[in-house]
């Protein structure tokens, strides 16, 4: 073990020299602001495109919940507009994503973003509870108790996974994250137990993301309406998942890692992002279809009323059937 290695041979920030002073030696021809801000070596246009798309996806995800908050406050029917299973599965998926990201040693920025996702889900779930209680005071309180327990568990998970400032973040070969740390050739490439657990939880997160959309699609179909559901919620999620998936695909593999191996190691996150785009498009299609159907019904009703007025006027006119 060299003098730069951390305890038990773990490579720390100090060991790889993750500082602006050593930027030129560890990341030649790379972007300095990306190195200093994200701790990532972006050497060419492909890496930079991956960085920009990743940042754009974060902005889309952070802003996706805001339109739904506004729509819920405006309509007051969030408990009937959104499926409870959609919210619960979405929260479970984001929680698994947070835990998997933490175990797979993703960058602090990604972990902070994952924490935001869970907090946003908990806020939306809290609003659902509020309107559920407000609109149906006589209904059984069992579901309220269950959801309250889920909120407490989700908040506890955030506290457990949120990296504290006094904890030294270990730098290991990040095999699964959408943004990888600097590759160090001396490190072993074998999977650790922690990485395997993170990969498994990431796979579970993808399944939960895919399953979460199905209850909402069924709810919209059963209601024959999407009133109370914000179109921009799913539009921004579609944009966020698309840009996130593209950022992963555009990222250059590590030195010595082939394209196939890179895709395999990021497959759960790719399925969780790009796989849900089709289902989110289905929800958006339902919204557009329901709006068009409502407009056609209104137009048909106006035509019928106008026809009735015309017929009545003709019958009441001199020489008409009723006037004679």
From TrEMBL:
GO biological process, one term: intracellular amino acid homeostasis
SMART domains from the UniProt entry: CTNS (SM00679)
UniProt keyword terms in alphabetical order: Amino-acid transport, Glycoprotein, Lysosome, Membrane, Repeat, Transmembrane, Transmembrane helix, Transport
Repeat in keyword set: yes
Membrane-topology annotation of the record: Multi-pass membrane protein
GO cellular component: lysosomal membrane
Gene3D superfamilies in alphabetical order: 1.20.1280.290
Subcellular localization, as worded in the UniProt entry: Lysosome membrane
GO molecular function list: basic amino acid transmembrane transporter activity
Chief location bin: membrane
Membrane-spanning segments: 49-70, 82-103, 109-131, 143-165, 196-216, 228-247, 267-285
Top-level division of the source organism's lineage: Eukaryota
Function recorded in the entry: Amino acid transporter that specifically mediates the pH-dependent export of the cationic amino acids arginine, histidine and lysine from lysosomes.
Family: Belongs to the laat-1 family.
Name assigned to this protein: Lysosomal amino acid transporter 1 homolog
